[in-house]
Amino acid sequence: MEMLSGAEMVVQSLVDQGVKQVFGYPGGAVLDIYDALHTLGGIDHVLVRHEQAAVHMADGLARATGEVGVVLVTSGPGATNAITGIATAYMDSIPLVILSGQVATSLIGYDAFQECDMVGISRPVVKHSFLVKQTEDIPGVLKKAFWLAASGRPGPVVVDLPKDILNPAKKLPYAWPDTVSMRSYNPTTSGHKGQIKRALQTLVAAKKPVVYVGGGAINAQCEPQLFALVEKLKLPVASSLMGLGAFPASHPQALGMLGMHGTYEANMTMHNSDVIFAVGVRFDDRT
């Protein structure tokens, strides 16, 4: 079994997860991880000038590719600078894993230099926050973090890494988990057949139906099925901002975006409809 330091476990876990690119800004609490990035290789690091930019860049990668974006920031101000980007990803359901440095475990809670409660600060805008206290837990926690970020409704996950568990002088056996399971988290991904049948009957019987498409349709990669349904039933399609791209804008049935910045035809069709077939939307106040 391979013997690695905590910092090397972080990098090797990213490699085993299939991560190709990390966006970040170095700082004292995560310098050991940066050393491991250099020595182990296999991952392209994109250096930014501000941690918020790192999160937005990882967010853009996730939107464009469907992969989980990865961010690496240091403790204290590095972590807090990332919060705006994390909140953006949370509101838009974008899968991210944010690796944040933290002071040594023995100093947590004692107002140490560049200490902040990243788990507590990030809690309202993440799916979950992990504080890793043991070096040997790093691979398992990162496996869970990536699974959480991408499964169910996607979103950001924070992994807080105290400086002492990354110690390059401390080598422990490393093994990347084959599977992951969390007893308290088991998102439902299958629909109710009876409800689906009733919804279809209601849609077919409608006089003025409209399809309302959101970002969830893109996350679920259901564009082909959506296109086939619209073509078969000749339904008009309106979109939220996040749903743009789920249905071709050049299609005759496409009405454009809804809301105060949307098109007249999209808003009027929605206003006068008798049945709304909503796909991957959250009915927010802007639409």
From TrEMBL:
InterPro entries: DHS-like_NAD/FAD-binding_dom, THDP-binding, Thiamin_PyroP_enz_cen_dom, Thiamin_PyroP_enz_TPP-bd_dom, TPP_enz. GO terms for molecular function: acetolactate synthase activity; flavin adenine dinucleotide binding; magnesium ion binding; thiamine pyrophosphate binding. Pathway: Polyol metabolism; (R,R)-butane-2,3-diol biosynthesis; (R,R)-butane-2,3-diol from pyruvate: step 1/3. Pfam families: TPP_enzyme_M (PF00205), TPP_enzyme_N (PF02776). One of its GO terms (cellular component) is acetolactate synthase complex. GO terms for biological process: isoleucine biosynthetic process; L-valine biosynthetic process. The keyword Hydrolase does not apply. Keywords: Transferase. SUPFAM superfamilies: DHS-like NAD/FAD-binding domain, Thiamin diphosphate-binding fold (THDP-binding). The keyword Transport does not apply. Residues 5-119 form the Thiamine pyrophosphate enzyme N-terminal TPP-binding domain. Belongs to the TPP enzyme family. This is Acetolactate synthase, catabolic. It comes from Klebsiella michiganensis.
